[in-house]
Structure formats: C-alpha cells, structure tokens
Specification:
Blueprint (H helix, E strand, L loop, with lengths): L4 H14 L1 H4 E3 L4 H19 L4 E3 L3 E4 L4 E4 L5 H11 L3 E7 L6 E7 L25 E11 L6 E11 H6 L3 H10 L7 H5 L2 H13 L1
Antiparallel strand pairs: 1-6, 2-3, 3-4, 5-6, 5-8, 7-8
Length: about 210
C-alpha cells in the first residue's frame, strides 16, 4: 500500500470498464476457486493485513480509502473478479486442475497490467524512436498460493513502474546499465532476447551512462 494506491485503482477501474473481455475472464471450472479466493481476501487477508484501510462488517468489507462497500457475497464469479480488480492493486490468475487430470489450465483471471509488448505497434519502429522520458523500469512482486478447498493455484503479481529518469537522478544509472548488460552475460543468455534486449538495451544503457 503506497501513495499511488488511489491513482492506480482509478486506472484499473478505467481499464476494466473499457477492456473487460481482455482483462477479465473466467471459465465455469474456475468459479468455485474464484469464490474461495474472494472469500479469503475479503474476510481474512485484507482486514487482517491492512486494518487501517479495510474494515470488516457482517455484510460487507469497507474500503476506507475509497469508501467502497465490498459485498461479502458477490453476485457472480465475474463480478467477484471485477470487485477484486477495482479494489486491489494486484493481478490474479487462477490455475485450476485440467479436465483430463494432467496438470493445470488457466481458468480465470483479472489482469490489468500483463507483461509484454504489442508486437503490431512495434512493427517498423526503430530503437531511436523510443522516448526515453516515457520509458520505465518495470519490477514485479510475484506470489503463488494454493487454495486449500478447491486445490486451485493462484498466481498473483503486483507491478511497480519507476521512470528511468528517476533511476538516473538517484545515481543508480551505472548499476542498472550493468544489470541490463548482464542479461546476456549470465548462465542463461537467452533471457536477453526473451526480454527484447536487442530492441531497447543499447539505447537505455547509453542514456543511463550519459
């Protein structure tokens, strides 16, 4: 929980409203897991972990920061994901047992900020066209949790974005530049290409050292 909480919730709400099918989906096989996750978060985790923000009542969870009354019983699994997505600054992906019993499948998700690039938008875009003032360092805090009743796996992650200009101003430019170059020098150099290093690496490291 930080000072950007309300701003990020506003952005998440806007994204969910404008791009619902892209950021929020659920298969029937995930409905029970969604309900289990929702109940755990609203009645146990949030009021216990953040008691100054969330207050539990017999019928709803009060978000004191937004004054939202979060129902303890959602009207549907999709509404449950919608409520979580507009009140918690974290992405949730639910992995449920595969129908054939072989591993897990993605059964439902609320993810406003998935990692990746719009490859169509990058067609014919050269590295020098990127605006360094609109470039950020992206970090994620990831967690995998097994729900005890449905045995579903919940993969959650929270994204942090720091402007590269801020990294440089704080005197950490050289350290980050070395870390970027280290992507192709480590034991798994393929990570450099997985992270699209050839597209942005040279320009970013040059800026950080300038």
């Amino acid at each position: 929980m930080d000072r950007t909480y309300l701003d990020r919730l506003a952005i998440r709400t806007s994204i969910i409203r404008d791009h619902t099918p892209t950021v929020l989906q659920a298969l029937p096989s995930s409905y029970a897991a969604i309900q289990e996750l929702y109940t755990y978060l609203t009645t146990v985790y949030l009021p216990t972990r953040f008691p100054t923000i969330y207050s539990l009542t017999p019928t709803y969870l009060l978000n004191k920061a937004t004054d939202h009354h979060i129902p303890l019983t959602p009207s549907s699994p999709l509404q449950a994901l919608h409520t979580l997505g507009t009140n918690i600054d974290t992405e949730f992906l639910l992995l449920v047992p595969s129908p054939d019993g072989d591993g897990y499948i993605l059964g439902g998700f609320i993810a406003c900020f998935p990692s990746g690039f719009d490859t169509q938008a990058l067609l014919e875009v050269e590295a020098e066209e990127f605006d360094i003032n609109d470039t950020h360092l992206r970090c994620e805090r990831q967690l995998v949790h097994r729900l005890p009743q449905t045995n579903a796996l919940v993969f959650s992650f929270k994204t942090y974005l720091t402007p590269l200009t801020q990294v440089k101003e704080e005197g950490l430019g050289e350290e980050l530049a070395e870390a970027i170059e280290g992507l192709r020098k480590g034991s798994v150099p393929e990570i450099h290409y997985y992270k699209r290093g050839p597209l942005w690496g040279e320009k970013v490291t040059a800026y950080l050292r300038s």
